[in-house]
């Protein structure tokens, strides 16, 4: 622990809280611990605090040992922290950290999808995001999977089993849910329903990328980026529309926001140190 | 001395009591007391105080009153404040007020004064015109006459004609009030985490509906708590000046959102009337009303509702940003607020020329959704912290 500079990022989403602990001692910071927790109707700031306590115990540290604890997402509600960064800023940084060549980051979260154009130094240059409707979001996939009696973890692999996907409404979550009920009563198989949902979301993402005039390579972040069925649907839709985007993801894609917060926190930690020295 | 949390809770309660029960109770204790309501921005409360009265700031109903009748009085393209105020008047929230003063800041307020007259609210209802000519012998004389009319209005109710000593005493109390408020802002400039902008807002707004003596005591207590004692923890936030909210007040959620997004509000124009005169008014003079006139003519702060030839408000805003060591400006004005929105391009230009970053947005006093505002303020904060 001696002379180490720890930074932590907490990303409070609508479903999950993601926590990253980094060692920012060196130029090339490394992730030393990570944790996710489903909120399950609890007070998010309370859950985040409990997660932090777990991390502190694991590493024998306390709040004062963290050089910069940064929040993002809805993490502004956490009382004890050093700073807060906006979600887009952190996803851009986290995406770039996981795949350094990325020039576009697509954050596929529970409530919306954001396509973000980024610079060499992970600065947000432009962005487009899905509107108010939830039909392009992870929450929608979760709702449908619940109707179909699936766990979120198995949605991706079941989607891969589809042979004749049935595409649902890509515009409205309510209509899409009605579509799904009709599909079930028409005897459409679960893999084909799920795959249809993924294709519908994929087509919305491709529209976002087109309107952003996005460039390759594209780093996919957020919870949905780990859904292999979603990834396959995206690739199929891209092939169908003739767009040549190189898609990348990472096993830690869900942590992109938290990771970005921890990274920007590290950057600010040293900036503030510099200022302190200047003042002296 | 009460603990700070209790003081803040008390101030919140007083600040948003739309029935002004504290002021009404104060009046009920003495038959010669009067309460006079005034609308934003500024009114020299000293003269009402000297005449055994309390000037009570009516800052609108905010998001705490459902507007039904008020909407019938104003078109959809008019700001929200007058709807709330007329609703309060028609719902008897303002009963027991002896008079109402409508400072001349825009047509909406002027029309509101007419509605109060037609509705026969209060024993007097005066549209109070401020001089736009800042020469003592022209605008000053005009303003003096206006102030004397108010004193006559009050005398007609309680038969109190304040003496020179009464006026000097009142001026002294309000000088103290302004000094304490400035000290509060000075402490917040240095240690903004010790008292949040929302808490500061409660404390200042409470001062509009209690006596100046009580408010001074509150301010002294608050300062005692925060001047030399640590409270809260310093965060890595940017420091901003909020400009444009001088009349229709922003909802508390908006102020909170700006802070949660990573901005310390180290100066603002939310309760501008309480900070209008910069420095002290002469409090030991043979002509105290004239001292108030001179203070207005010579030492008014800047605002979109004041003609400012020779002393441009853009420059004054830039000076404020520099003095407060702020990182940027958030222009936050009420929708349809002509004075604020018409001034905004000029103020933005001044900021651009001085290299001061800024963003802008609009609100209604009863806005309930702040996600977009939080995102704007959050990206503004990030851009300054990471790339400025």
Query: What's the helical proportion of residues of chain A?
Result: 40-55%
Task: Please report the number of helical segments of chain A.
Answer: 8
Secondary structural class of chain A = alpha/beta
Give me the CATH superfamily of the largest domain in chain A: ATPase, nucleotide binding domain
Tell me, what's the shape of chain B? globular
| CATH topology-level fold name of the largest domain in chain A | Nucleotidyltransferase, domain 5
* Total domain modules of chain A: 2
| Cross-sheet strand order for the largest sheet of chain A | 3-2-1-4-5
CATH class of one domain in chain B: Alpha Beta
Determine Rg of chain B (CA atoms, Å): 20 Å
CATH architectural type of the largest domain in chain A? 2-Layer Sandwich
What is the residue-averaged pLDDT of chain A? 89
Biggest interface, residues from each chain: A-B, 18 and 16 residues
Count of extended strands of chain B: 8
Element order of chain A: H for helix, E for strand: EEEHEEHEEEHHHHEHEH
Which parts of chain B are unreliable, with pLDDT below 50 for 5 consecutive residues or more?
none
* The first-level CATH class name of the largest domain in chain A: Alpha Beta
């Amino acid at each position: 622990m001696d002379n180490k500079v720890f930074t932590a990022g907490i990303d409070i989403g609508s479903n999950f809280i993601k926590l990253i602990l980094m060692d920012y001692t060196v130029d090339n910071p490394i992730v030393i611990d990570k944790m996710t927790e489903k909120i399950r109707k609890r007070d998010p700031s309370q859950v985040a605090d409990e997660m932090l306590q777990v991390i502190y115990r694991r590493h024998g540290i306390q709040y004062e040992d963290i050089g910069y604890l940064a929040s993002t997402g809805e993490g502004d509600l956490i009382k004890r922290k050093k700073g807060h960064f906006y979600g887009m800023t952190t996803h851009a940084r986290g995406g770039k950290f996981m795949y350094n060549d990325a020039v576009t980051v697509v954050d596929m979260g529970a409530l919306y999808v954001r396509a973000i154009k980024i610079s060499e130094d992970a600065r947000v240059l432009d962005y487009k995001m899905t509107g108010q409707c939830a039909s392009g979001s992870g929450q929608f996939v979760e709702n449908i999977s619940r109707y179909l009696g699936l766990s979120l973890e198995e949605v991706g692999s079941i989607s891969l089993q589809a042979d004749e996907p049935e595409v649902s409404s890509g515009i409205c979550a309510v209509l899409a849910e009605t579509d799904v009920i009709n599909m079930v009563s028409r005897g459409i198989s679960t893999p084909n329903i799920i795959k249809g949902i993924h294709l519908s979301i994929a087509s919305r993402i491709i529209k976002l990328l087109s309107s952003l005039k996005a460039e390759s390579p594209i780093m996919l972040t957020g919870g949905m980026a780990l859904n292999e069925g979603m990834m396959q649907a995206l690739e199929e839709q891209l092939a169908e529309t003739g767009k040549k985007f190189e898609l990348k993801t990472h096993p830690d894609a869900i942590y992109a926001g938290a990771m970005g917060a921890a990274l920007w926190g590290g950057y600010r930690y040293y900036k503030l140190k510099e200022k302190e020295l200047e003042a002296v | 001395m009460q603990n700070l949390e209790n003081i803040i809770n008390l101030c919140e309660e007083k600040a948003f009591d739309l029935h002004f029960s504290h002021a009404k109770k104060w009046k009920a204790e003495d038959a010669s007391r009067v309460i006079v309501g005034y609308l934003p921005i500024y009114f020299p409360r000293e003269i009402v105080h000297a005449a055994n009265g309390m000037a009570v700031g009516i800052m609108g109903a905010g998001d705490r009153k459902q507007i039904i009748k008020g909407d019938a009085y104003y078109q959809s393209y008019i700001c929200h404040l007058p709807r709330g105020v007329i609703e309060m008047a028609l719902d008897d929230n303002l009963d027991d007020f002896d008079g109402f003063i409508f400072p001349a800041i825009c047509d909406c307020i002027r029309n509101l004064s007419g509605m109060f007259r037609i509705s026969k609210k209060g024993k007097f209802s005066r549209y109070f015109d401020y001089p736009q000519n800042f020469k003592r012998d022209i605008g000053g004389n005009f303003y003096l006459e206006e102030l004397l009319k108010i004193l006559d209005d009050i005398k007609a109710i309680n038969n109190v004609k304040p003496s020179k000593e009464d006026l000097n005493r009142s001026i002294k109390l309000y000088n103290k009030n302004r000094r304490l408020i400035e000290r509060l802002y000075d402490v917040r400039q240095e240690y903004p985490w010790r008292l949040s902008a929302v808490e500061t807002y409660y404390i200042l707004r409470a001062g509009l509906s209690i006596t100046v003596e009580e408010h001074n005591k509150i301010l002294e207590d608050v300062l005692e708590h925060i001047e030399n004692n640590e409270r809260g923890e310093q965060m890595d936030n940017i420091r901003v000046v909020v400009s444009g909210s001088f009349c229709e007040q922003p909802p508390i959620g908006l102020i909170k959102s700006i802070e949660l997004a990573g901005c310390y509000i180290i100066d603002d124009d939310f309760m501008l009337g309480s900070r209008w005169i910069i420095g002290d008014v002469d409090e030991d003079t043979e002509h105290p009303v004239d001292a108030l006139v001179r203070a207005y003519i010579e030492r008014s702060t800047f605002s979109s509702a004041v003609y400012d030839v020779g002393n441009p408000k853009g420059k004054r805003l830039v000076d404020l940003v520099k003095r407060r060591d702020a990182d940027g400006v958030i222009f936050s004005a009420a929708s349809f607020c002509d004075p604020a929105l018409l001034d905004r391009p000029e103020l933005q230009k001044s900021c651009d020329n001085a290299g001061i970053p800024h963003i802008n947005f609009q609100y209604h006093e009863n806005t309930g959704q702040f996600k977009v505002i939080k995102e704007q303020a959050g990206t503004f904060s990030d851009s300054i912290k990471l790339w400025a």
